């Protein structure tokens, strides 16, 4: 069988995703590729090769025999491992491709071991430590965060989240076991509202980079940072919802069956698999709720920034920014 390969064009815009980001379906296809858990297994050599292919292509240099499909594959390997603003290689467990394997394990254990205070504290602390790494890794902007700022944000975020979980656990001591199973989800939802803004507090204080449609930097905006962080909070809570809301109902039924009464140790693995199945779909679909390259009207920016843009770039009506993930 003869296979045809498409020779590559020199005008492909690899700064943008392959699919139209103006539609939910286009964003969903993009994030199914970016969050593919198989990307976690890529070697450093494969990552560096993708980095070289993309860097070379941006400078007009193409590897001999490179096809369009291979270019896009390299772009998505590149996007899954390198930060869009800083260009640095991201921490492995902080990448979006690690979300499914990491979250299914942590969430499954949180929902299995929720009845004692030490277990709640341990798993909420592990979960919020993981969230802190993800939130820092996927922050917007290229300004560095000092060790002191990072430490303060981490301690306040994890403490607030664990306290929330313990408070909710105490409130549900005398209600049905099913409601008790939903406590970890309520705690995670509340904790996301604390953890994400705290881990990204520098953006709220100093703003995130905003550009025109041609990627010319126009300044930093705290208003854009607020929109970006609020969108990420909403998508993260919804991302956790199916995996934390559906398995409790199934487990409540399964634990009454003879199988789990005979093999109670199977409860945690079953819960982890159920959560993983939900996350495979929830992670990319909830990332796709809002465009990663978000935008807002110049008229909604801070007054002094509006004035600066009107003077330096009078034709610009809309600004763009990376909202983070």
From TrEMBL:
The keyword Transit peptide does not apply. It is found in: Mitochondrion membrane. GO terms for molecular function: monoatomic ion transmembrane transporter activity. The chain crosses the membrane at residues 233-250, 270-290. InterPro entries: Mtc. The keyword Transmembrane helix applies. Its main location: mitochondrion. GO terms for biological process: one-carbon metabolic process; serine import into mitochondrion. It catalyses: L-alanine(in) = L-alanine(out); L-serine(in) = L-serine(out); L-cysteine(in) = L-cysteine(out). Keywords: Amino-acid transport, Membrane, Mitochondrion, One-carbon metabolism, Transmembrane, Transmembrane helix, Transport. It is a multi-pass membrane protein. One of its GO terms (cellular component) is mitochondrial inner membrane. It comes from the Eukaryota. Belongs to the sideroflexin family. NCBIfam families: mtc. Amino acid transporter importing serine, an essential substrate of the mitochondrial branch of the one-carbon pathway, into mitochondria. Mitochondrial serine is then converted to glycine and formate, which exits to the cytosol where it is used to generate the charged folates that serve as one-carbon donors. May also transport other amino acids including alanine and cysteine. This is Sidoreflexin. It comes from Salvelinus namaycush. The lineage of its organism: Eukaryota, Metazoa, Chordata, Craniata, Vertebrata. The gene is LOC120062527.
């Amino acid at each position: 069988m003869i296979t045809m390969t498409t020779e590559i064009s020199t005008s492909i815009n690899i700064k943008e995703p392959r699919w139209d980001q103006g539609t939910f379906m286009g964003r969903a296809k993009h994030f199914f590729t970016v969050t593919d858990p198989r990307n976690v297994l890529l070697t450093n050599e494969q990552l560096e090769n993708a980095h070289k292919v993309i860097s070379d292509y941006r400078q007009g240099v193409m590897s001999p025999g490179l096809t369009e499909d291979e270019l896009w594959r390299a772009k998505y390997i590149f996007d899954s491992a390198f930060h869009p603003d800083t260009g640095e290689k991201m921490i492995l467990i902080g990448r979006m491709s690690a979300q499914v394997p990491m979250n299914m394990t942590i969430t499954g254990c949180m929902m299995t071991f929720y009845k004692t205070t030490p277990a709640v504290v341990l798993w909420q602390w592990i979960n919020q430590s993981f969230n802190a790494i993800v939130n820092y890794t996927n922050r917007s902007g290229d300004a560095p965060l000092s060790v002191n700022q990072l430490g303060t944000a981490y301690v306040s975020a994890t403490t607030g989240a664990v306290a929330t979980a313990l408070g909710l656990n105490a409130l549900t001591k005398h209600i049905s076991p099913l409601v008790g199973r939903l406590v970890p989800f309520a705690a995670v939802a509340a904790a996301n509202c604390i953890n994400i803004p705290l881990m990204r507090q520098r953006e709220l204080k100093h703003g995130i980079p905003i550009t025109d449609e041609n990627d010319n930097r126009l300044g930093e905006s705290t208003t854009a940072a607020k929109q970006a962080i609020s969108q990420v909070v909403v998508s993260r809570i919804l991302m956790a919802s199916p995996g934390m809301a559906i398995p409790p109902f199934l487990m409540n039924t399964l634990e009454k069956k003879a199988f789990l009464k005979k093999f109670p140790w199977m409860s945690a693995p079953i819960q982890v698999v159920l959560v993983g199945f939900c996350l495979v779909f929830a992670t990319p679909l909830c990332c796709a709720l809002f465009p990663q390259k978000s935008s807002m009207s110049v008229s909604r920016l801070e007054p002094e920034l509006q004035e600066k843009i009107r003077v330096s770039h009078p034709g610009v009506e809309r600004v763009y920014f990376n909202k983070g993930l």
